[in-house]
Amino acid sequence: MKLNLDYLLETLWEYLALICIYTKKRGERPDFGDAIIMRRAATVEHVCHRIHRTLVGQFKYALVWGTSTKYSPQRVGLTHIMEHEDVIQVVKK
Question: Which residue ranges traverse the bilayer (predicted)?
Fold first, then answer.
């Protein structure tokens, strides 16, 4: 009967402090079907490590769309803290 499963799922996400972060390639639309699941207060550096371990060494800047930025898109560095359902595009050197 699926009674309150949506509420249970939402409560679990809040209790575990999880957020979804979507990736975007240059010149393409964001991929909302495949998200990166991270803990709350994850930085751009944590997201880069999740994508690929050598990405931080090649990192130049990132463009972020979402509630964690003042402008959409905003150019950010490694210390920027991501929020739920932000979209990130990483630019390498």
Answer: none
Domains held by the chain: number: 1
Q: What is the mean pLDDT of each run of 10 residues along the chain (93 residues)?
A: 85 94 94 93 95 94 95 94 95 93
| Full-model pTM | 0.86
Q: Residue length, the chain?
A: 93
Q: Determine the structural domain holding residue 61 and report its residue range.
A: 19-92
Q: How far apart are CA 86 and CA 25, in angstroms?
A: 14
Q: Residue 65: which CATH number?
A: 3.10.20.30
